[in-house]
Fold this protein.
Amino acid sequence: MYTNNKNNENSWLNRLTTITDMFAFPLKTSHYVELVNPLWTTHKMQAQVVEVWDETKDSRTITLKAGANWRKHRAGQHVRVGISVDGRQYTRTYTISSPPERDDGCFTITVKVIDGGRISRHIVRNLKVGDYIPVGLPQGDFYLPDASPIQPLFITAGSGITPAMSMLRSLIAQQRLPDSVHIHFAPNEFDVIFARELRQMSIQQKYYHLHEVHTRDFGEDKQTKAYFNLDQLQRFCPDWKERDCYACGPASLLSSLEKVWGEAGLSNKLHIERFLAEFAEVPSDAVGGKVRFAKSGIEVEADSETNLLRIAEDAGMNPPHGCRMGICHTCNTKLKSGCVRDLRTGELLNEVGAIVQTCVCATAGDCELDL
Amino acid sequence: MPTAKPLPVNLSNDQIDEFGREMDAIYEETLASRGEKDRLYILRLIRTQRSMALGGRILIYLGLLFLPAFSHALASWGSALIVMTLGVVLLGIAKILENMEIAHNVLHAQWDWMKDPEIQSNTWEWDNMSPSDRWMHSHNVVHHTWTNVVGKDLDVGYGIMRVTPMQEWEPKFLMQPIWFVLLMLLFEEGVALHEQVIIDVVEGKKDSKELRPIMKHIGRKVWGQVRKDYIMWPLAAALMALPAAMFVSVSPISIFLLVAVANGVANIIRNVWAFIIIFCGHFPEGVYSFTPDQVEGESKGQWYLRQLLGSANIQGGPLFHVLSGNLSHQIEHHLFPDLCSNRYPELSPRIQALAARYGLPYNTASIWRQFGTTWRNNLRLALPGGKMPPKVATV
Ligand code: FES
């Protein structure tokens, strides 16, 4: 899951390891290198926690030193990390909050505890300096274009600020911050992640215009003030139609943005990063069926809503997976026969050989997968 | 469903069912309690094992520097051999740990629950001539399903030995004390060739064409192992000795041979140890074998019962259990093959108590007794006849 084989530029090194691997057979040289320093391994990628920093009462920035084969991210990209809780390893995806310009080989992720979230809680509360965790390579296409200068409008909420933060920090580091408007939603002023840096930026950077919206009165549990709406947008950013909007936050916010931009006929100016796949409605006449896993020889009954990854895992298999929300494609497999439904779009896949992302597809009738 | 021929116990089917339910309860309770502690156990073990393997190889190399040819104060055959022996033993133990407490158990999917992509039954390749996937078939599927069923379980006699009086005697079994010793020394190679197809082809039941892909697959693995232990490591040592040969009288060829022999001995240490532990698990006195019609339509309770009657434990301390891959808890392993092995010791007293309540035997004894009676049976069964274990008189 975390292996990576990009090494072509070092072909002499490749040739050398082909030979040294013969000494380590059936393992790889890298398995022994790991004994010396886990960051030097190449058979998997790990990162070491070098610093933890509390941003707010329930969010923390973790600085990670990446191991061999790491590649620089683009501001706005995310990374998969593996976390062990109670002995079991889980994979989650987090945006990198540091700018790529940072050159000590470190990057940061900023994690907020989700209500009832075991993994995020574990990262925020238990991960400590010195720990090693598996990581993937930076991925994702939510980043600012390199070439064309644009005037961005950032709309973020809660921990959705992380990709915007990476972009802002990167632009500032490159000294090419264009005129930017940033609307950020948080329950109250103490819940704003990166609050100090943001407020300082808005004083020091003359092109950066920050609008914080606090949706609760201090000490209140319920939201008391307005969330996103068109009036507010007009007020904070009268020229929003001319800008490219980069938004990240909870699904409800993103769907109201989609509506506003859609109605204005500007959908192509809205760039959205989602952290939970939004599922299309499963039609009421959808049927489940028998799922056959060809390679494992397992056959189980499945309903029309449970994703096939879960079905496989419940059947005792451990198929490859990463993000579990349809972005990383680690879970891709081939459809051998039958029909599956993509839960995000409702689209049906029934061509033999079609690629199925098991984490976001459910069976539609009987199907057979190459797992 | 009643079995066609009952198991050798005086328990009613209801009692056997209840026995099975109690087993299930113990299993589920232990499954649910797995956690961080277990993960740290296997991670540490793997790290230790790899360090030992590396350490052993380095010591073997260091031993070469004490060869008399180097004529420094400490150089002598005595000190060279002592250092090399230490290295060989360390490497041998590392190989034992890898094969038994790590690979055997990983390949049983005991650690799949962690979802650690590095420690999964479907990706682990072990330090053994037998390719992991072939072994998982012959061991996990065939042996664990058909434990001690004569004619079904390939491990009963490995096709060359008579280990229960239920197997009919044939003159070829007169040879079996020799096979016993040979298999002990070449256990690794034996395991690699432990395939039903090979037997079928030898017996003329199948065409040799069917053998080719499997032999190719096994061959690739064997080559990797041979290349490592008998070519690469010795060769590297010989190459290092090459420049030295200009100044002192060391022959790179003898350096090559010394390292190759050292690695070979380490492999044999592992073979002998694995053989002893494994043979003590199923072939000492008091272990039951079964006929195919006894297992027909077997219930879960009857399956547990067969695993209990067909396996034997070896007593020893914690270190002994780790070195035996916890196959010293063969009974627990056969009852719960996919449960992390580090939990078998805590289960053992519970299983023993459960067996006692049902008046069932729980075959455990010292390694001397278990291996001694295994040998005795081997010699006795080389000749016709032999005594079946008595029916279990239950409370
Ligand atoms: S697990 Fe990432 S796309 Fe399915």
User: Anything to note?
Assistant: Residues 1-7 of chain A have pLDDT under 50 and may be disordered. Chain A is about 20% helix and 30% strand. Helices of chain A lie at 11-24, 29-36, 118-126, 161-173, 195-204, 230-236, 251-263, 308-314. Residues A 321-324, 326-331, 357, 359 surround FE2/S2 (inorganic) cluster (CB under 6 Å).
